[in-house]
Design goal:
heterodimer; A: mainly alpha; B: alpha/beta; 6-stranded mixed sheet; 4-stranded antiparallel sheet; 9 helices; 10 strands; globular; disordered N terminus; disordered C terminus
């Protein structure tokens, strides 16, 4: 029995999410991405925070909060981006792209399926980090309050948007460009002022940093850590720029997919 | 071009398909018309444009000129709906890794809109004689078994058009016979139209009731296997194939380079 249209979309989204759940369940080493590495980051930045904290009660505690809250929320961007990017790359690695492209699945349904599964990985990863920060460094993320939710939502959107750019680039330039899936985040990270204000960056990089939605989201986070409540101005700038980034990434992906079909690049994967 | 004409419903109609790659024109004005229940082979030497034509029919490559309709739905406008009517399997495509056969088939059944594809999975595995493979991991299968599973996957949703690229390329004669029998049953019982490429001319003669020969991106002959062989004064399709391949070599002694997608259009 063929399901109705909306039901069919949901069926396909779930099917793609399940497909990646099987891959994760049968490749235990991939769990490192969502458990071990986030925990290592907590240990690294928590230890730096402890060192900075020693003997400087007020400033040190503030710096520790910046570091730990910053690294936890950075993983929202990183994990959401990497889940969608590598979900797509998995299809190229297993030469499954042609099989998928001949099915009725729509592009947005595929992305939604991978993103849905990515949310599960994200929940595991962030959960591990929050518990690790609490157990090892007595940093209770819940003290930041509900203000952290909209900030995390903006960062989630940014992560997905970057992943769409990465997929577009891989569609256009092939598997050789897949290193970007990981590399791009190491460019975005220092520019986003995760642990420090933009003024700490070299002057020529500051305009670039200010153009990134992540910079404003982390600025809002620091205000939250300072106990200043939710900085609506920074959150507003972050939201608007994240939406612009999302629109640009969708546009870019659609263009690259069209080029992919026009030039017959699918034969690279069959 | 002369195409199969009949009173039955048109499942596939492609008109004026043209595809240029950087170094060669791969497809040059191909028309195709396939009706319900027809079994059509698209034949020709390597680099003739068969696979590019199939990929345009499947909507994976967009034509530079021309259009494709599946059961009256224009691919360029309504790809998802049109794709619901098509199944595709190729002998060279692997199964997705880290999935058992039933999980893999369930995934694709759901992508084609089947809420509970289990009955279709069971029926498909039985039709092609592999019910015992349901719980095997994709990586445990031989290439022949993978091909069979691929064909089961392509037929789960009862497509009106089944496109097969070299479906028996890696199969031993016994399994190839099972595939042919299964495909013939499918075509007779459900009216599924077949569009097949193959380099095995004997197999094509056994399976298909119409052949379309392509050379240098153009259709050069179309009709029943016997008629086409007779037109070229050959005893069988293999003779026609060799004749066309020799003609191509004579016309282009340095051979046409294979399309290079990396170089783009």
């Amino acid at each position: 029995m063929v399901a109705d249209t909306l039901g069919t979309s949901w069926l396909r989204i779930r099917a793609i999410a399940n497909r990646h759940a099987y891959v994760l369940a049968r490749s235990p080493h991939r769990l490192f991405d969502v458990t071990l590495w986030p925990l290592v980051d907590v240990l690294l930045f928590g230890s730096i925070a402890t060192f900075v904290n020693s003997g400087q009660a007020t400033t040190g505690a503030k710096a520790a909060g910046y570091l730990l809250a910053g690294i936890v929320l950075w993983h929202v961007v990183y994990q959401s981006q990497i889940a969608v990017s590598t979900g797509f790359l998995e299809e190229t690695w297993s030469r499954n792209l042609l099989n998928l492209m001949v099915t009725p699945i729509r592009e947005w349904e595929y992305v939604a399926g991978v993103a849905l599964f990515g949310m599960l990985k994200l929940a595991i990863g962030i959960g591990v980090m929050v518990i690790g920060a609490l157990l090892f460094f007595s940093f209770d993320a819940s003290t930041l309050g509900f203000g952290i939710v909209p900030i995390a939502a903006v960062l989630l959107l940014v992560g997905w948007s970057i992943s769409l750019f990465v997929i577009g680039i891989v569609l256009r330039w092939g598997s050789g460009a897949e290193a970007l899936a990981w590399g791009v985040m190491f460019v975005v990270m220092p520019l986003s002022g995760i642990f420090y204000p933009v003024s700490a960056l070299p002057a020529f990089l500051q305009p670039v940093a200010l153009a990134l939605p992540t910079t404003h989201a982390f600025a809002a986070l620091r205000t939250l850590v300072d106990g200043g409540g939710l900085d609506w101005t920074q959150l507003g700038i972050a939201t608007v720029s994240a939406l612009i980034l999302a629109a640009l990434s969708v546009w870019f992906l659609v263009r690259m997919l069209s080029l992919f079909r026009r030039r017959g690049y699918v034969t690279r994967y069959s | 071009m002369q195409q199969g004409e009949g009173t039955s419903e048109v499942v596939l109609e492609a008109r004026g398909l043209v595809k240029d790659y950087a170094r060669a024109r791969a497809v040059d004005g191909v028309d195709l018309l396939v009706h319900t229940g027809e079994r059509v082979a698209l034949l020709g030497p390597n680099g003739a444009g068969k696979t590019t034509t199939l990929l345009m029919v499947l909507g994976v490559i967009s034509p530079d000129e021309g259009w494709v309709e599946i059961s009256g739905r224009r691919l360029a406008r309504d790809r998802s709906r049109a794709a619901e009517e098509i199944g595709f399997a190729a002998g060279y495509l692997p199964l997705a890794e880290r999935l058992r056969v039933r999980e893999y088939l369930k995934l694709y059944g759901q992508l084609y809109g089947l809420r509970d594809p289990r009955p279709e999975i069971t029926a498909g595995l039985e039709r092609f004689g592999i019910p015992h493979l349901g719980d095997a991991m994709g990586t445990e299968l031989s290439s022949g078994q993978r091909t069979l599973v691929g064909i089961v996957r392509a037929t789960l949703h009862h497509p009106r058009l089944l496109v097969l690229d070299e479906p028996t390329a890696s199969l031993d004669p016994d399994v190839a016979l099972r595939v042919r029998t299964g495909l013939r049953e499918l075509s007779d019982d459900e009216g599924t139209a077949l569009l097949v490429t193959s380099h095995d001319m004997a197999e094509v003669e056994r399976l298909c009731d119409r052949v379309v020969f392509v050379a240098a991106g153009r259709i050069v002959a179309s009709g029943s296997p016997k008629d086409v062989a007779a037109t070229y004064g050959r005893g069988d399709l293999e003779g026609v194939f060799l004749h066309l391949a020799a003609e191509r070599l004579a016309a282009q002694p340095h051979a046409v380079p294979a399309p290079d997608p990396d170089r783009g259009a």
